[in-house]
Amino acid sequence: FGTLLERALNPKERAKLGAHYTPRAYVERLIGPTIMEPLRADWDGVRGAAATLIEEGKEDEAKAFVEAFHSRLAQTKVLDPACGTGNFLYVAMARMKELEGEVLDLLVELGDDQYVAELTGHTITPENFLGIEVNERAVEIAQLVLWIGYLQWHFRVNGADRTPPEPILRDVRTIEHRDALIDYDDKILERDDAG
Fold first, then answer.
1. Mean pLDDT, consecutive 10-residue segments, the chain of 195 residues?
2. Of 125, 129, 107, which is closest to residue 116 (Cα–Cα)?
3. Were both Cys, which of 10, 50, 92, 135 would link to 62 (CB 3.0–4.6 Å)?
């Protein structure tokens, strides 16, 4: 989608907006250390702690520990302040959904099918991914890209038999049409005695 928008802009407009498609390999190199490595480090700790709890016969505590991690993961927000058509956000969502899949698989292994079955509204969705973009067309494309990515993941994991929760496409506006660059107002931050 980024290439599509890039080609629709004349060279002067592209230069003014800084509209250049970022290849997926570059996006992956950024998402790894900034988003996924910290999340995976937390997940590795949770998995290890859950395994220890299971060895001690504390399955319910292990489930609760994994559920708490999933809850934190499902509340994680990602911001791209110059999101263009949403490639960075799309790839971030794909990677986070993969991690969420691992978490849910462990919960099923632990016999927590009920938790997994009741996930509606408590999962990673396009609402977790925020963007700011100065080009109005790119804003709409980015929002659409996130929904397409989410639905692709849903049907790949669940098959065509299980439809996503209604409404399938919610009117969520997590990509804002505005300029992320702000003017420096030359005001000095004043602090009180408390800091």
1. 51 56 84 97 97 95 94 96 92 96 92 72 89 90 91 83 72 87 72 77
2. 107
3. 50
Residue type, 45: G
Whole-prediction pTM value?
Answer: 0.80
Q: State the DSSP code for 110.
A: T
Q: Where are the domains of the chain?
A: 2-177
Other beta carbons less than 10 A from residue 174's beta carbon = 20
Residue 115 C-beta-side C-alpha neighbours within 13 Å:
21
Whether residue 182 contacts residue 136, with contact meaning beta carbons closer than 8 Å, is answered with no
Separation CA 24–CA 47 (nearest Å)? 29
- The SS3 call for residue 38 is helix
Beta bridge partners of 78: 129
What's the DSSP call for residue 176?
E
Extract the tokens encoding 83: 């999101």
User: How many angstroms from the chain centroid is the CA of residue 101?
Assistant: 13
